[in-house]
Design goal:
The chain is α+β, with helices and mostly antiparallel strands and 222 residues long. Helices cover 33% and strands 25% of the residues. Strands 3-5-6-7-8 form a 5-stranded mixed β-barrel.
Length: 222
C-alpha cells in the first residue's frame, strides 16, 4: 500500500495509537483521497502534531446510536496519511488524506491533547493494504447500471471515459465516498467485509433511495 511517499506493507507498519477526527458523514476508504478544510483550533493542533510524526490520522464518525457526538465513536474508522497540506492564509489548513486501511477502536486514551486519541487495531483489515484485493468478485456491470440510474434520476452526467478506465476497487470506493447518503449508510459501506460486499451494499442503498423517492413523488436531486 503506497500513500504519498510511504509504503505500508503490513499492520506492523502502522501506529497503534492515533489521533482521531470524528466527522459525521465523512467516509475515507483505502487508497481514496479525502479533502478536508481544517479550521477548529484542536484539529489544527492535531494536524501540526501529525506532521511532526507519522502523518497518520484516524477518520471516524461520531456514534449515531444515541450517544452524544462528544463521547461516542463508531467502532470502525479508516487511517489516512496526510499527503497534501496547504495554508489558506486566513488561519485554515486545506489538507488531503489518502486512505491506508480501516481500523477497529480498542479504547479511547486519556490524553492532555485538545484532540482525541484512540488505541486501535488493523488486524481485521489486513487485506486493505493489498491494492485491488477482491476486484474480480465485483459485479462491475451491476454497479455501473445502478450508478447510471442514479445519474438519470437526478439529471446528472459523469465522466464516463474516466469511469470506464477505473479499476473495480477505485470505482466502488470512489462512488461510496462521494455518495450523498447519511452517516449510517456511510458506516455500512465502510464496514463491509470486502469489496464485493461494499459494491452490493452501495447498489442496495442506491436502489432503496431511488425507489423511496419515486414512491414519495419527491425530487431526487439532493
Amino acid at each position: 500500500m503506497q500513500a504519498g511517499n510511504k509504503t505500508y506493507e503490513t499492520g506492523a507498519d502502522l501506529p497503534t495509537v492515533v489521533p482521531v477526527f470524528p466527522l459525521p458523514g465523512a467516509l475515507l476508504l483505502p487508497r481514496g483521497q479525502l479533502p478536508l478544510n481544517i479550521f477548529e483550533p484542536r484539529y489544527m493542533a492535531m494536524i501540526d502534531a501529525a506532521m511532526k510524526t507519522d502523518r497518520v490520522i484516524g477518520m471516524i464518525q461520531p456514534s449515531f446510536d444515541g450517544e452524544t457526538a462528544e463521547t461516542g465513536l463508531c467502532p470502525v474508522g479508516c487511517l489516512g496519511r496526510l499527503t497534501s497540506l496547504q495554508e489558506s492564509g486566513d488561519g485554515r489548513y486545506l489538507i488531503t488524506l489518502t486512505g491506508i486501511a480501516r481500523f477497529q477502536v480498542l479504547e479511547e486514551m486519556e490524553t492532555v491533547t485538545p484532540y482525541r486519541q484512540c488505541r486501535i487495531s488493523v488486524d481485521r483489515f489486513q487485506d486493505d493494504l493489498a491494492s485491488g484485493s477482491g476486484e474480480d468478485a465485483v459485479d462491475r456491470q451491476a454497479v455501473l447500471r445502478t450508478f447510471r440510474a442514479y445519474l438519470e434520476a437526478n439529471d446528472m452526467d459523469a465522466d464516463w471515459e474516466g469511469i470506464e478506465q477505473a479499476g473495480n476497487e477505485a470505482l466502488v470506493n470512489a462512488l461510496s465516498m462521494m455518495s450523498p447518503y447519511g452517516p449510517a449508510e456511510k458506516q455500512a459501506l465502510l464496514e463491509a467485509d470486502d469489496l464485493k460486499m461494499r459494491a452490493e451494499t452501495l447498489i442496495a442503498i442506491t436502489e432503496m433511495d431511488l425507489a423511496r423517492k419515486a414512491g414519495d413523488g419527491e425530487p431526487v436531486l439532493q
